[in-house]
Write a structure and sequence with these properties.
The chain is mainly α. The protein has helices at residues 5-8, 24-31, 33-54. The protein is built from three helices and no strands.
Length: 55
């Protein structure tokens, strides 16, 4: 019986019994330079908002 792609993330292993393996989309977003740059800008804007409220 073949393992479905969705169930592969939950496959048990001797080393990690409940550790999830990231899917294709998660791996792509973690390695995409453009997406990382966009996240960087968004996080900086959020930090500026928080800091500006405290001063």
């Amino acid at each position: 019986m073949a393992v479905k792609p969705e169930e592969f993330n939950f496959a048990k292993n001797d080393k990690f019994r409940t550790a999830m393996i990231p899917g294709k989309m998660a791996r792509y977003l973690r390695t995409c330079k453009l997406w990382q740059f966009i996240r960087f800008i968004i996080l900086n804007i959020k930090m500026l908002i928080v800091v500006s409220k405290s001063h």
